[in-house]
Specification:
Strand order of the largest sheet of chain B: 8-9-6-7-12-11-10
Oligomer: heterodimer
Radius of gyration of chain B: 23 Å
Order of helices and strands of chain A: HHHHHHHHHHHHHHHHHHH
Radius of gyration of chain A: 24 Å
Helix content of chain A: 55-70%
Order of helices and strands of chain B: HHEHHEHEHHHHHHEHEHHHHEHEHEEEEE
Structural class of chain B: alpha/beta
Structural class of chain A: mainly alpha
Number of strands of chain B: 12
Shape of chain A: globular
Largest sheet of chain A: none
């Protein structure tokens, strides 16, 4: 079931009302049932995978805790089974094809076979969440959960099941034991966050997608401005798409009394690539930091090892996003950005001092934000392009000077006509204005200071903006991009 | 909790209410054919239900003149049997026809796609009947489409993207000024129709004795229609219009279906009329078609002539005689036949200027005002200099009272046109020249004569005369 479906608009209120009507001791069961139902709407078969992952990590937790001397074996088993499933469904064909290409290159005879399986929705998310539990128990950071039902709910909790945020067991599991009371203000806040998420997805992301798909699905037809605009639009599309899912997830959980971790913090206002990664997909970044970067030695083993570790983390992160060299390169590019940025810190500091640039000036901050954004957009090209050769073409042709196409009307032949383009730009301005506003304010609280007439008018206008300007209906059904990861 | 639920319910009601209200604006007005049933003030005697085959063939005007009965078409594109059933149910809330003609082409399927669903139900008022119809269209067979259901109930959800340059003044005022259209939309232009290998006239169809089996849902719904007719004392006639398609739900399948029906519903008092078996008798040929599914004006004349006689021969005792109610129309018809047609033919043939004087007699006979509509881009000068341009169509509205004119003019919505409606005085008579934004679709029911189509709305208020130069040989 997708958040941006009418089925969810019926499902969610039903879940919430019954959730609060059920006695506390049965609520976990209700949430488990509806979470499995939520996933079954995509694929009942693949529910088995979630269940296997749940059983394996649950048992590993108990066994690790009980047999501390053999804990490595149990952790290893948990890792191998979970990552094995992930590998089989997500990476088998990719590695097979890559090996075939390699062998072909060296003229070595190699017969490969393909597995025709669909990628289970959200497999990377729930696998990582379940693995973090095994590792935390192994590290003695948490006690194993005895209650299988509640643990199963931790792995499958529907708001964040298919696209995060990736929660840590110590944060989420205890919340299933708390009796969440019906809190009017909290529910309202959750619903408004969900509304904002729907706006970002249906009005912004899906509209930008029209132009992005037009250009990126046949980039050879475009040059210069069109490629730049499509790439910039994709940067906003993927942000709105992914962060909208997070908003809806956090909002939905909040309605029921659960607190999920923040996953995005205005990432395009970052002034450096490391800062960008502290603000983009925060829960994944934290996961890699805790379960990969630190075990590799982090930054404690000298500059060279630190850089190697950074590269490993980002290459793996790229691979986590998708079984394609495009994603690996995307991750690698971000790794290189980070390495260059950290390695050149001293030189850049000296240069700034020599040029007597005020680091606190608005101009300097703006320059850094724009530079970071530009680097991020470049990397997104690999993320979005259908093939490596498409990426190469785009890079080669995006610098072709044809700026007059901004004025001769050809801008409106990229899938969005003039009116649609204007709506896209205006909604992006709303997004940026909101993010600037949220930096020092809280829209929800400020909205509450107005009388009911203004508040309701605001809600109604927001709802009708989505209904009127949203991309839905006859258009091809638009999934959240991150579901495929 | 109660407070929040109440607020949410209120918010939900507001959103749905506003969306519902917006729907009337965003609806595609060309898909609102069934809405005409609500505008029908007169009693109904003959109701034709079916697909575009019906509205492209059945001539309301001709049949009304021939049978002296009131005729109405409840036809929508590719109408299927479930749509026919719910439309008939809705119609029966307001009118009780004497005879119901159900086209057997509608038996081709039980559930249609989005377009045909909206074409059938968008014009239907909100009711439990509509909810049921939308439910069947959205949740039957393998279809499980919540969006389809919600957009059938609240069409704003489907047409919301019409904000982008597709809305016109007509969309905002349509329902305030809706004009009855009794349903005929006979293609008047004889476009070049080149049949393919799978589109041919098969004169041997009557030799088919096989029977087609019906989908159980289709048959069940047909039985419900039969029961509905019996319960309401309505004579049911299952009929088909002639078409050429030999693929999909082919003309052969329809003949076989008709065989099945004749055999399986013997015990019911049902009439059968299969025009696909009458090609020879009616001398139907390729020039009678506009495409492989639809007849043109020539073909329609042949079918309606036969149909009119068939109705009179078989159902005269069932139908009331409304001759006296139609005297006013007949007066104009005679005038048109006897005094204008000939003159017009002459003028059109010579591409001479419009013989307005010949129309003016109508003004002289009464207090009517005459309005002439042009549906192409002729300006007034061109109009006067050379009337008969390619595909030219002229419409003349006659209004008994001057006070009716502005209302009617608004109703016809001359918008988005370079050519503004203009009132001119010629020989002491006032004319309003304008053009319509429709090509082959009538907005008002009409009477057809040789080269003329005489329109009138149910209130006898506005009357239109349409002259097609391509009809004039």
């Amino acid at each position: 079931m997708e958040f941006n479906s009418i089925a969810f608009l019926l499902f969610f209120p039903t879940v919430v009302v019954l959730y609060f009507l059920f006695p506390h001791k049965y609520r976990w069961f209700w949430l488990l049932v509806v979470s499995y139902f939520f996933y079954m709407m995509w694929s009942a078969t693949y529910l088995v995978l979630i269940f296997i992952s749940t059983v394996v990590t649950y048992l590993s937790g108990l066994l690790i805790s009980k047999y501390r001397d053999k804990r490595k074996i149990f952790l290893f088993l948990s890792l191998i089974i979970n990552l094995g499933i992930l590998f089989f469904f997500k990476y088998f064909n990719f590695f097979n094809e890559s090996l075939t290409s390699l062998y072909t290159y060296f003229n070595i005879d190699w017969s490969s076979s393909r597995i025709d399986v669909l990628l289970p929705v959200g497999i990377s998310f729930y696998t990582f969440q379940a693995l973090s539990y095994s590792i935390d128990v192994y590290r003695n950071n948490i006690e194993p959960e005895k209650h299988f039902g509640k643990y199963a709910l931790f792995v499958s909790f529907f708001p964040q099941l298919v696209a995060g945020p990736i929660e840590k067991s110590k944060d989420l599991l205890p919340q299933f034991d708390i009796k969440h009371k019906f809190n009017y203000e909290r529910i309202k806040e959750g619903l408004i966050l969900m509304l904002w998420g729907f706006f970002k997805k249906i009005v912004i992301a899906d509209r930008l997608a029209v132009l992005v798909n037009t250009v990126y699905n046949s980039p050879e037809n475009y040059q210069g401005t069109a490629l730049v605009i499509a790439s910039v639009f994709f940067a906003f599309q993927i942000y709105c798409d992914f962060s909208s899912y997070t908003d809806i997830a956090i909002g939905a959980a909040k309605v029921m009394g659960f607190k999920l971790r923040k996953n995005f913090d205005r990432p395009y206002f970052s002034k450096s690539i490391p800062e960008f990664w502290r603000r983009w997909h925060i829960s994944l970044g934290a996961w890699f930091k805790e379960y990969l970067y630190f075990p590799l030695g982090g930054n404690r083993k000298g500059k060279f090892r630190t850089n190697i570790n950074i590269m490993i983390v980002f290459l793996v992160s790229g691979l986590w996003h998708g079984a394609s060299w495009n994603f690996v390169i995307w991750g690698g590019l971000h790794g290189i950005y980070q390495v260059i940025e950290t390695s050149s810190f001293t030189y850049r500091t000296r240069l700034v001092e020599r040029l007597q640039i005020n680091r606190q000036s608005v101009g300097h901050k703006f320059y850094r934000v724009m530079l970071t954004f530009t680097l991020v957009v470049f990397a997104w090209v690999f993320f979005r392009a259908n093939t490596l050769s498409d990426s190469a073409y785009i890079f080669k042709n995006m610098f072709v000077l044809n700026y007059w196409t901004l004025f001769d009307g050809s801008l409106f032949s990229l899938g969005l006509d003039k009116n649609e383009f204007m709506v896209a730009i205006f909604s992006l301005l709303i997004l940026l204005a909101y993010e600037v506003y949220e930096r020092k304010n809280n829209l929800y609280k400020d909205l509450n200071s107005f009388n009911i007439g203004i508040r309701w008018s605001f809600y109604l206008v927001a709802i009708f903006c989505i209904l009127l300007f949203g991309i839905y209906g006859d258009y091809e059904k638009s999934q959240f991009i991150y579901f495929q990861f | 909790m109660i407070k929040l639920i109440l607020k949410l319910v209120l918010m939900f009601a507001l959103v749905i209410g506003i969306s519902f209200a917006c729907s009337s604006i965003f609806l595609k007005k060309e898909l609102l054919r069934p809405h005409n049933m609500y505008l029908l003030e007169e009693e109904n005697d003959l109701l034709f239900v079916g697909s575009s085959h019906v509205f492209a063939t059945i001539d309301v005007g001709y049949l009304e003149q021939k049978t002296d009965a009131n005729v109405f078409l409840l036809a929508t594109p590719s109408q299927n049997i479930s749509q026919s059933y719910y439309l008939i149910q809705e119609f029966l809330k307001y009118k009780r026809p004497k005879i119901l003609f159900l086209e057997t082409y509608s038996l081709k399927e039980y559930i249609g796609d989005d377009f045909v669903n909206h074409a059938a139900y968008d014009g239907m008022k909100f009711s439990s009947n509509k909810i049921e119809a939308a439910y069947i269209a959205s949740f039957k067979d393998s279809i499980n489409d919540l969006y389809r259901f919600s957009s059938l109930m609240v069409p704003f959800f489907k047409y919301h993207d019409r904000w982008n340059g597709d809305l016109t003044e007509k969309d905002f005022k349509y329902f305030d000024n809706a004009v009855l259209n009794k349903g005929s939309e006979i293609p008047t232009v004889n476009s070049e129709f080149s049949p393919t290998d799978s589109d041919f006239i098969d004169y041997e169809l009557s030799k088919i004795k096989e029977k087609a089996t019906l989908n159980p849902d289709v048959e069940h719904t047909l039985k419900k229609i039969i029961q509905l007719c019996e319960a309401n004392n309505i004579k049911l006639v299952l009929f088909s219009t002639p078409y050429l398609a030999h693929h999909g739900f082919s003309v052969e399948t329809e003949v076989k279906t008709m065989n099945y029906l004749k055999d399986n519903f013997k015990q019911n008092d049902i009439g059968y009329l299969d025009f696909n078996l009458l090609y020879k008798e009616l001398d139907i040929n390729y020039s009678d078609y506009v495409d492989n599914h639809h007849m043109n004006y020539n073909g329609s004349k042949k079918v309606n002539s036969y149909l009119g006689n068939w109705i009179v021969d078989n159902y005269n005792t069932v139908l009331p005689n409304r001759e006296t109610e139609k005297l006013w129309y007949k007066y104009f018809n005679n005038k048109l036949n006897n005094e204008i047609v000939f003159e017009k033919e002459t003028h059109f043939k010579t591409h001479d200027s419009l013989s307005i004087e010949k129309i003016v007699f109508l003004k002289k006979d009464g207090d009517s005002y005459i309005i002439i509509d042009l549906n192409d881009d002729l300006n007034m000068k061109e109009f006067a200099d050379n009337v008969a341009s390619d595909n030219f169509r002229m419409m003349v509205h006659l209004y008994p009272k001057e006070s009716d004119i502005p209302k009617i003019v608004t109703k016809l919505e001359f918008i988005n046109q370079d050519f503004k409606p203009t009132i001119m005085e010629i020989n002491g008579n006032k004319f309003l020249f304008s053009k319509l934004d429709i090509k082959t679709t009538s907005e008002i029911n009409f009477f057809k004569f040789a080269n003329f189509t005489f329109y009138s709305d149910s209130k006898g208020r506005g009357n239109l005369l349409t002259i097609y130069d391509l009809d004039i040989k």
